[in-house]
């Protein structure tokens, strides 16, 4: 029943993110065809039919320019309700006196978050793809279909980090702030370090997303898929929650 | 089965430099109803939390149903058979009591829907109102409901009747006696409602600043414990191990004697003291005598001085 | 069951229960063969520990006021047929002595003490 509790508790945030991203994606899909004539909006399908590929490309770029953070956002908002967040409000005294190991509780929550993250990433983009396909009568969008998965892969380490921060700070708000803070500070520091030192540091784990956004542009040399970054992403996606699991196992409340 | 339901040996817990529980030795038999008394901050809650694995002992050990709460596998088995009502009865704010019951039921195969329904009715709980919108009293009742319908062999209740009106307290006592004590379940309860403790408990333990001052059957307290008030010169501080406490109040000495009060009084008389009174003690009086710190002597006040109490068990 | 408890009387609960049952039997409110509530039921009604009720019931049975049946249940016994008159007198003597001593200490006359006893007997009603 704990999985149900996780779902029920994150339901509002989940729907908020899902609807936000879906509406954005659908609007961007329609954007090329929207024109203002005689003081009112009209939809003009000609672009979609006449040049499907470029239109699809433009749409996709627009969607990606906003939804790239979907993985991060859902990871941080959904992950903040990890078990550690129940310590400060006091419901942990109930949760941890049920006959379940603390590890199973941590990973159940993680699993529910992953499922929600996948839906939040996949649904808006696939909805946009369906709409785009219907409008252009063209159905071959390689990057569009793989994009949500890149977002999720990149979001998983952040989910783990948020779970860990929530366990450290013992509250949902603490977890959210410290996790997003850590990501932002790290990105910032990385920029500060690599520019003056002329380092070409590979990204820690955001490689796949960058690969996606880079290769999507026209006239740019496609870069190879960053397997290293993917490996690091998978490693951190597991390492952070494991650290949280260890912390919580020893925790006294 | 001779094995104690709850056992602690030298159980101690310190939070940094602060000692919360010191060398606690408890042995609660299955089927006993044990009242755990003490002032706020005496260490009752910490003790209970150690039994349930929420906090780890610094020294000593605890066993619940023979199992060790610091061992994760054994703790799981404890939690299957023990129901707990924490001091801070906090549950998920967004959930209604009905949803909380449904969530809780899934953990316990021995859950009783009938007991839950009966309790919800007796305690007049608004089952469809979100927890965060309930009054504190109602929130407590929900926490109690979840524990009492669980079908547990051992109930560990931390101030279960705090903040409840007398009618509700009465209903809870009734439920405890009817559905739990009668079934031979063990109840380990801490409470400030001494009158109620006196009614249903058969054992009582008094904790003060982390140490067990006294542990006794309630029957013995009624039948054997006496308050002896004497006056005279040079009265002894602590005559024997049967004298649980001795306080001075001006010319008078108040002794709480655990047994053979008449003989003790005779001894005092033989030393020239005048015995003013030998009376039985209610639980509240006994508790106050044991834990109240008397005020220091000041001019104009006869002054009452507390004498170090011999740890009695 | 018309039993109640006085928490502040200083008298142990089980003694109060015993006294009330004995009084009820003596006054005829509880008749021979009538069933007393089960330990569990009475304990729940009075909100006290069942052991306390059990103790009182045990004492009542020992005193011959009640008897228990193998199938379960406690019933009012019928006037102690098993006890010899001499036994009954022996049991009552300490109470009589106490009445006499206290009456003397309070400087009541013999007539006043006897009158007290007669009044109490009258209150009980029932058989002469």
What does this structure look like?
The complex is a heterotrimer of chains A (253), B (313) and C (128). Chain A is mainly alpha-helical and 253 residues long. Chain A has ten helices and two strands, in the order αββααααααααα. A two-stranded antiparallel sheet of chain A has the order 1-2. Chain B folds into two domains: 6-219, P-loop containing nucleotide triphosphate hydrolases (Rossmann fold, 3-Layer(aba) Sandwich), CATH 3.40.50; 224-306. In chain B, α4 (113-122) packs antiparallel against α5. Helices cover 31% and strands 28% of the residues of chain B. Chain C is mostly helical and 128 residues long. A three-stranded antiparallel β-sheet of chain C has the order 1-3-2. Chains in contact: A-B, B-C. The interface between A and B is medium-sized, with 20 and 27 residues.
Strand fraction of chain B equals: 25-35%
Estimated radius of gyration of chain B: 22 Å
How far apart the termini of chain C lie comes to 26 Å
Which CATH top level class of the largest domain in chain C fits?
Mainly Alpha
Structural class of chain B: alpha/beta
- Write down the overall geometry of chain B: elongated
Number of separate helices of chain C: 5
Strand elements of chain C, count: 3
Task: Label the CATH architecture of the largest domain in chain C.
Answer: Orthogonal Bundle
Helix content of chain C: 55-70%
Largest sheet of chain C: 3 strands, antiparallel
Low-confidence stretches of chain C: none
Helix- and strand-based class of chain C? mainly alpha
Fourth-tier CATH superfamily name of the largest domain in chain C: Winged helix-like DNA-binding domain superfamily/Winged helix DNA-binding domain
Strand order of the largest sheet of chain C: 1-3-2
CATH architecture of the largest domain in chain B: 3-Layer(aba) Sandwich
């Amino acid at each position: 029943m704990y999985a149900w509790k996780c779902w029920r508790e994150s339901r509002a945030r989940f729907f908020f993110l899902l609807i936000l991203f879906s509406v954005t994606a659908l609007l961007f899909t329609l954007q090329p065809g929207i024109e203002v004539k005689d003081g009112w909006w009209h939809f003009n399908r000609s672009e979609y039919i006449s040049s499907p590929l470029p239109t699809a490309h433009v749409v996709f770029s627009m969607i990606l320019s906003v939804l790239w953070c979907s993985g991060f956002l859902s990871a941080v908002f959904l992950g903040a309700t990890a078990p550690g967040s129940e310590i400060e409000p006091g419901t942990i005294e109930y949760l941890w006196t049920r006959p379940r190991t603390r590890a199973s509780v941590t990973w159940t929550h993680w699993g529910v978050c992953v499922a929600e993250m996948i839906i939040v990433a996949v649904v808006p983009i696939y909805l946009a793809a369906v709409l785009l396909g219907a409008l252009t009568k063209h159905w071959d969008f390689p990057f569009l279909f793989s994009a949500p998965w890149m977002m999720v892969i990149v979001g998983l380490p952040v989910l783990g980090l948020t779970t860990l921060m929530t366990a450290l700070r013992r509250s949902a708000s603490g977890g959210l702030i410290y996790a997003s803070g850590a990501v932002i500070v790290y990105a910032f520091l990385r920029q500060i370090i690599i520019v003056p030192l002329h380092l070409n540091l590979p990204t820690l784990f955001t490689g796949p997303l960058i690969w996606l956004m880079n290769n999507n542009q026209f006239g740019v040399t496609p870069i190879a898929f960053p397997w290293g970054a993917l490996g690091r992403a998978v490693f951190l996606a597991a390492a952070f929650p494991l650290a949280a699991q260890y912390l919580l196992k020893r925790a006294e409340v | 089965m001779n094995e104690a339901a709850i056992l602690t040996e030298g159980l101690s817990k310190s939070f940094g430099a602060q000692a919360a529980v010191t060398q606690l030795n408890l042995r609660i038999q299955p089927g006993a109803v044990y009242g755990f008394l003490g002032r706020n901050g005496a260490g009752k809650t910490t003790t209970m939390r150690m039994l349930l694995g929420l906090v780890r002992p610094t020294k000593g050990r605890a066993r619940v149903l023979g199992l060790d709460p610091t061992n994760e596998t054994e703790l799981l088995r404890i939690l299957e058979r023990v129901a707990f009502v924490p001091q801070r009865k906090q549950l998920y704010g967004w959930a209604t009591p009905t949803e909380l019951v449904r969530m809780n039921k899934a953990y316990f195969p021995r859950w009783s829907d009938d007991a839950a329904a009966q309790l919800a009715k007796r305690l007049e709980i608004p089952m469809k109102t979100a927890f965060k919108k309930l009054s504190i009293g109602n929130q407590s009742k929900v926490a109690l409901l979840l524990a009492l319908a669980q079908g547990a062999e051992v109930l560990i209740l931390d101030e279960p009747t705090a903040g409840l009106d007398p009618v509700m307290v009465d209903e809870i006592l009734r439920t405890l006696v009817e559905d739990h004590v009668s079934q031979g379940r063990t109840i380990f309860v801490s409470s400030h409602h001494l009158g109620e403790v006196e009614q249903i408990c058969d054992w009582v333990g008094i904790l003060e600043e982390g140490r067990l001052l006294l542990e006794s059957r309630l029957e013995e307290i009624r039948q054997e414990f006496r308050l002896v008030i004497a006056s005279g010169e040079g009265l002894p501080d602590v005559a024997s191990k049967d004298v649980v406490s001795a306080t001075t109040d001006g010319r008078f000495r108040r002794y709480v004697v655990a047994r053979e009060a008449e003989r003790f009084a005779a001894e005092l008389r033989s030393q020239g003291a005048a015995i003013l009174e030998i009376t039985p003690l209610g639980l509240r009086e006994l508790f106050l005598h044991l834990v109240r710190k008397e005020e220091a002597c000041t001019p104009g006040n006869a002054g009452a001085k507390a004498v170090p109490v011999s740890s009695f068990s | 069951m018309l039993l109640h408890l006085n928490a502040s009387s200083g008298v142990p609960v089980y003694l109060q229960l015993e006294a009330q049952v004995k009084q009820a039997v003596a006054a005829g409110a509880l008749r021979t063969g009538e069933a007393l509530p089960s330990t569990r039921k009475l304990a729940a009604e009075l909100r006290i520990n069942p052991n306390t009720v059990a103790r009182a019931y045990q004492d009542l049975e020992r005193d011959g006021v009640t008897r228990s049946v193998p199938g379960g249940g406690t019933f009012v016994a019928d006037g102690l047929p098993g006890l010899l008159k001499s036994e009954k007198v022996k049991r009552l003597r300490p109470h009589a002595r106490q009445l006499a001593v206290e009456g003397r200490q309070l400087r009541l006359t013999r007539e006043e003490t006897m009158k007290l006893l007669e009044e109490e007997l009258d209150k009980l009603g029932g058989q002469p």
